[in-house]
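Reading is simple: each integer encodes one residue's backbone shape. The lines below illustrate:
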Amino acid sequence: MTLKASAIHIVGILPARWGSTRFPGKPLHRIAGKPLIQHVWERCSRCERLDELLVATDDARILEACEAFGARACMTASDHPTGTDRLAEAVRAVPAASHVVNIQGDEPLISPALVDELAGLMAADPALEMATAANPMAAGDPAVDDPNVVKVVRALDGRALYFSRSPLPHFRQHAGTTPVLRHKGIYAYRRDFLERFVSWPPAPLECAESLEQLRALENGASIRVVLTDDTSPGVDTPEQAREIERLLAAERS
């Protein structure tokens, strides 16, 4: 598929699901006087390379809250097996979209510059199917051994070779000669590729690691990995929400 420059139309989509094992109702949890999802929306509204911004939710309470603070939102099914399936349904509300940037709805400190970089990368390369981001981790960071922290290794040209919950790479010799990369959960897709992606059945490595992006690699797709210094944390628990409130206060002081 080759897109003319005039056909490029990039939508940023913020998935905001009500159900969460550790933090039900997380998108509406108030941080510094605003719902969490509002902080993410306002942050992404600073982006210069997005043509549209949309919240995709499975709950009417989130939809109403988003509309109350001026966000555009759409309802999606509550039984999607993956977040990517929810994204593919949501983009139907944007017929003009040629590309989609999937921005985690629980990262209120996400860098607008990173979102713009991924959007710009997709717009500049019509052949690029998918892109994501990763940040180098400090030597000795305990998160390297944390299975909740996803790691990625890249080819010399920036393509993803593999994603894993295990320490990656394993340093048998010369420990620390290359940084361990923490994968950030932001993705940019060419729309036609996203539609193909969700048509494929779950793949063996994807199921083993519980990482959707491995489905793309297992089906021969290429994922460009952008390096970033954005280490913005997400919110998975009420305790992390309190830490985000502290960071927001420090940012504004």
